[in-house]
Write a structure and sequence with these properties.
Number of helices of chain A: 11
Largest interface: A-B, 99 and 111 residues
Number of domains of chain A: 1
Distance between the termini of chain A: 37 Å
Structural class of chain A: alpha/beta
CATH topology of chain A: Alkaline Phosphatase, subunit A
Largest sheet of chain B: 2 strands, antiparallel
Oligomer: heterodimer
Number of strands of chain B: 10
CATH superfamily of chain A: Alkaline Phosphatase, subunit A
Strand content of chain A: 5-15%
Helix content of chain B: 40-55%
Number of strands of chain A: 11
Strand order of the largest sheet of chain A: 3-6-1-9-10-2-11
Radius of gyration of chain B: 26 Å
Strand content of chain B: 5-15%
Radius of gyration of chain A: 22 Å
Helix content of chain A: 25-40%
Strand order of the largest sheet of chain B: 1-2
Number of helices of chain B: 28
Shape of chain A: globular
CATH architecture of chain A: 3-Layer(aba) Sandwich
Shape of chain B: globular
């Protein structure tokens, strides 16, 4: 069941991609086809709470800058990074928004849309909120490039959710991925369950004959299940019928992916012994396991789009391994017993974890290729400075070489809506659009990002 | 252009959200200055109203004269099983005690209890999880010869495979779909059996039947399709539909054999028959689990086990404090509701609780030995009901200092159903950490600034009543050498006025009609998996009356939930 043909064509695509920037640098910018190759991948790395402004944004020129304190863990990837200053979540300030700035940040970060009225949070219809009013960039990209993969996209979260008021459920304070307006994509929070989901079949697959039998049986079952949905839906009123039809669509999608081929370099990683991944102390270990799973999922071709989410916007988790025993939220607001240094240390730590992810993606395989060369990684947070819920000058990073990202640069913008960044990313993955999210905050792709 | 959750939410549910969340109390009494600054006003819900009560003011006693058929429930989207319900149903259907629902993606929060039918979108991850969990559950059954034989309950050698399988499908299918199968369903399930049997063994083919049923809408959704009488849009539920409503309300799971029998025999028709079933079901242990679950969710205790406290600030806490505290509160709730036949008042004021040795140390109670929990009477000046439990104080106090805002917010949102708005963006207020200041002094700006005071007057003075509890919930009489001042004030509501200390606060809340009505509202949301709408006015009034009449006995309220129009009837899409 392991096919090598797909792999070879990937390789060829990869090498032509690498050659592109050299060839095209002689061409006028507008003529460049800054679109990622067919096997490229997109990852989002989310960590809450923003950054300490003066310690995160570099000073100096576009290329001649020093990495400031909070970005030092990324120094090995300096030449593959684009650091952004001056991008703002303008759509989060749109008057149509409801709810608190933390959840508005969660809702707008990847959607460029707004967070409409809904039942969440507090007060009345004026300030309660729902989920984001538009789909997120990762889901749009997945719709475009995730067709042939086993999973259209993967959303893995660690130490989630942190707010007891969320009662373990998906809420605007803890979700950043949306497949459609007001349709949150729930994240997988248990690394062992994620392992089972991704590699369970692979690990215990036995012979090819056994796995093809299993495939046949799964098809039989899902066919029959679809029969049940169609039959019941026909008897219901239009609203409930629509609900079942939406469910049926997802079942079809699962069935379509049943037989997807696995990538060449694919091997189930060793998740190690089970441990309690839900505690604060477990965050570093669980987070790395999640990142390992994500990297191997890309390697195997199980998916091409994913999100690694640490905690949520409430960030009620502590960092005991850093000697920080209050919750992240307390450090964000520098409430009693916490220090501003605490917040700086937390952000630095998260940047170190991003460096770990880039390191795993950057591992050179026997054939000399690297996943990082065909991957684009977006780092973002829901807020710039939690202390006053500021959402201008947001911390954004892009890394990786997909679509020929021109790294090693610090780009400054004069308070530009982050919708333009989302447009640039969408276009890099072949989505022909001039707006993303709310059109009134979209002016077009950021020039010169990809070469 | 953008619909609110697309087609899945009724217009009336949108209007109802403010009715659940907001009672207009704080707005009337002075949250406006701050809202005016923001350019936001907490206005009344828009749209048609059914009399004064429909705007949602809990403290309003009697509603205006209902309009024609005002007791008819609203159009409600069909419900999918929550994670909890999925686990319990698989346990009762297949004897599967592995809590498979825990492996489903998290439910959406919706009405606050994660079971809101208006907030149940289906992701690919969910569809795939259902497929995987069904496969695993079927394997657990079919690989265990004893369980398989139990389930099949038929001698294949004697009757022949096909006859046995037909009987199995008839019986198992009816339990999984919670009503007798239709002819088509029988044919389709037999079809999948034959399909898989054509290339695989008996166990595998039986497993496939189980897998199909576990992923089918008749299992995953609460489908109600009994039609209304001609010319009307409101139907009384059919017997099997009612049986499911009863069992998911009272047990969070599928009907048992007796309930199926009653439904099949037409014995869920009269109010007396329904009452007898509900009473019987309330005596089942599952009803206790339901009541524990409700209060755990209501008071935000989910996830308390994961809370870790700074070992330097709190060096002497038990490692598993969160789990111990949850166990204490669960036992307390169960005891009040079921053993003492208690009311809301006991829940809010009783000093009786359950401790083991470790927790007794935490509470400063001598002479409790061993790991077993046993009944303990706490000092009634120090502890008064569930709000003063270590679990509740702990869950709502992050950090190393007490948090009057969050504690007050808890009372305001959970017990008064009147949460104030969020703070405006762009406000920087660093609470001073000067150890020479008391907590009250540290939050002084919330009083001295008009911008803050407009809303914080509804929270902080409530929270000050809990100042005798340190951040993890232990009693204290000093903070940093300063004596504790636990005087506070309830602003607004029918029990407004100053008070001193947690007991006085708890007793005042226990006398409040606003609190009682809010508690009814919360049960409505949890029990019916939705929120109240203006159309629910009659059902809500009925619940309030039943609760009042029964001395606010909680079991009376739960039983009354099975007697309302919202429970017994269903609006059908025209």
């Amino acid at each position: 069941m392991l096919k090598t043909t797909g792999r070879r064509s990937f390789l060829m695509a990869g090498s032509s991609l690498l050659a592109l920037p050299l060839l095209e640098s002689a061409l006028p910018r507008s003529a460049r086809a800054a679109t990622a190759a067919a096997d490229s991948c997109f990852l989002v790395f989310f960590a809450p709470g923003g950054r300490v402004e003066t310690l995160w944004h570099p000073s100096g020129g576009e290329t001649g800058f020093e990495l400031p304190d909070q970005l030092t863990p990324l120094s090995a990837f300096r030449e593959e990074l684009v650091i952004f200053s001056g991008l703002a979540l303008h759509s989060s300030r749109d008057p149509r928004n409801r709810g608190h700035s933390h959840s508005r940040g969660m809702g707008t970060l990847l959607t460029g849309s707004y967070v409409p009225f809904g039942p969440y949070e507090t007060c009345d219809k004026e300030t309660t909120s729902g989920f984001a009013a538009g789909p997120s960039i990762d889901q749009e990209i997945a719709r475009a490039i995730g067709r042939g993969t086993r999973f259209r996209s993967l959303e893995l979260a660690t130490r989630w959710p942190t707010d007891t008021r969320d009662r373990g459920t998906v809420a605007p304070t803890n979700c950043i991925n949306f497949s459609a307006p007001e349709t949150p994509v729930p994240c997988e929070t248990d690394p062992f369950r994620a392992y089972q989901r991704l590699f369970g079949d692979l690990a215990g697959s036995g012979s090819t004959a056994q796995s093809s039998d299993r495939l046949r049986r799964r098809r039989s079952v899902l066919d029959a299940v679809q029969g049940e949905y169609a039959s019941v839906a026909g008897r219901l009123g239009s609203r409930d019928r629509a609900k079942l039809e939406a469910h049926l669509d997802q079942i079809r999608s699962v069935e379509l992916r049943l037989g997807s081929a696995l990538g060449y370099g694919c091997a189930a990683p060793d998740p190690g012994a089970r441990f309690d991944h839900t505690t604060d102390e477990a965050l570093p270990r669980a987070g790395r396991l999640m990142m390992d799973l994500m990297v191997m999922a890309l390697e195997c071709g199980l998916t091409r789009v994913g999100t690694i989410q640490f905690s949520d916007s409430q960030a009620h988790n502590a960092f005991p391994w850093l000697g920080l025993h209050e919750d992240h939220h307390s450090y964000q607001h520098a409430t009693a017993g916490t220090t501003p240094e605490g917040l700086a240390a937390i952000t630095r730590w998260y940047m170190g974890e991003l460096a770990y992810l880039l390191g795993r993606l950057g591992e050179v395989r026997p054939d000399g290729s690297r996943l990082l060369d065909r991957t684009l990684v977006l780092y973002g947070s829901e807020i710039a400075l939690a202390e006053n819920h500021d959402q201008s000058n947001m911390p954004f990073l892009l890394a990786g070489k997909a679509a020929g990202l021109r790294g090693g640069r610090h780009l400054r913008y004069p308070d530009v809506a982050h919708n333009d960044l989302l447009i640039s990313i969408a276009r890099a993955f072949g989505l022909e659009q001039n707006t993303f999210g709310l059109p009134e905050y979209s002016s077009g792709p950021l020039p010169g990002l990809f070469g | 252009m953008l619909s609110f959750l697309g087609a899945s939410l009724t217009a009336s549910a949108v209007q109802a959200q403010p009715a659940l969340r907001r009672r207009g109390v704080s707005r009337r009494l002075g949250c406006e200055p701050y809202l005016a600054v923001l350019g936001l006003a907490c206005g009344e819900p828009e749209g048609p109203r059914v009399g004064a009560g429909a705007s949602g003011a809990v403290s309003e006693g009697v509603a205006a004269v209902p309009q024609l058929d005002a007791c008819a429930p609203p159009l409600v989207p069909m419900r999918r099983l929550s994670r909890q319900e999925y686990s319990s149903t698989l346990r009762d259907l297949l004897g599967d005690t592995t809590r498979p629902g825990d492996a489903l993606p998290p439910d959406e929060r919706g009405n606050g209890f994660g079971n809101d039918s208006a907030f149940q979108s289906v992701s690919e991850l969910l569809a795939e999880s259902y497929a995987r969990l069904a496969e695993e559950a079927a394997l657990r059954v079919t690989r265990d010869p004893t369980r398989l034989a139990e389930l099949l309950a038929c001698d294949v050698a004697q009757l022949g495979e096909l006859a046995c399988v037909e009987r199995f499908i008839e019986h198992f299918g009816a339990r999984a779909y919670r009503r007798p199968l239709t002819g088509d369903e029988r044919t389709r399930l037999l079809g999948v059996f034959a399909d898989v049997r054509s290339y695989d063994g008996l166990e595998s083919a039986l497993g496939a039947v189980i897998e199909v049923t576990l992923q089918s809408p008749q299992f995953l959704y609460r489908i109600e399709e009994t039609p209304p009488a001609a010319g009307t849009e409101v139907a009384r539920l059919g017997a099997f539909e009612l049986a499911s409503r009863l069992s998911y309300l009272l047990w969070g799971s599928m009907p048992d054999e007796e309930l199926f029998r009653a439904a099949g025999a037409g014995e869920l028709e009269t109010p007396e028959q329904l009452q007898a079933q509900a009473q019987r079901m309330l005596e089942h242990p599952e009803a206790r689990a339901r009541v524990r679950d409700f209060h755990g969710l209501l008071f935000g205790l989910e996830g308390l086990e994961q809370v870790r406290r700074s070992p330097s600030a709190f060096p002497e806490l038990p490692q598993n404090l969160g789990a111990l505290l949850r166990e204490e509160t669960s036992r307390f709730v169960e005891d009040v509701v079921f053993e003492q036949g208690g009311g809301l008042s006991a829940l809010l004021t009783s000093p009786q609780t359950f401790l083991n040795q470790e927790l007794a140390g935490f509470y400063g109670v001598p002479d409790v030995q061993g790991a077993e929990f046993r009944p303990v009477s706490l000092d009634e000046h120090r502890r008064a009901g569930i709000l003063t439990h270590g679990a509740v104080m702990n869950a709502h106090t992050p950090g190393v200092t007490s948090h009057p805002v969050l504690r007050g917010l808890l009372v305001r949102s959970v017990l008064l159903c009147d949460p104030p708005p969020d703070p405006p963006p762009g406000i920087v207020f660093i609470v001073p950490s000067d150890p020479g200041l008391s907590t009250r002094e540290r939050y002084g700006l919330h009083r001295s600034s008009d911008l803050c005071a407009g809303c914080h007057q509804f929270m902080d003075p409530l929270g000050f009543g809990f100042e005798n509890y340190d951040p993890v919930g232990r009693w204290r009489e000093h903070e940093g050498g300063l004596p504790i001042d636990a005087s506070g004030e309830i602003v607004g509501t029918d029990v407004a006025g100053p008070f001193v200390g947690p007991r006085e606060l708890a007793e005042r809340l226990a006398q409040s009609e606003t609190v009682a009505n809010c508690y009814v509202e919360q049960w409505f949301a949890y029990g019916y998996g939705r929120v109240t709408t203006p159309e629910d006015m009659c059902s809500r009034d009925q619940l309030r009356q039943a609760f009042r009449a029964g001395d606010q006995r909680i079991t009376d309220l739960i039983l009354a939930l099975t007697e309302t129009d919202a429970f017994l009837r269903r609006r059908v899409e025209p």
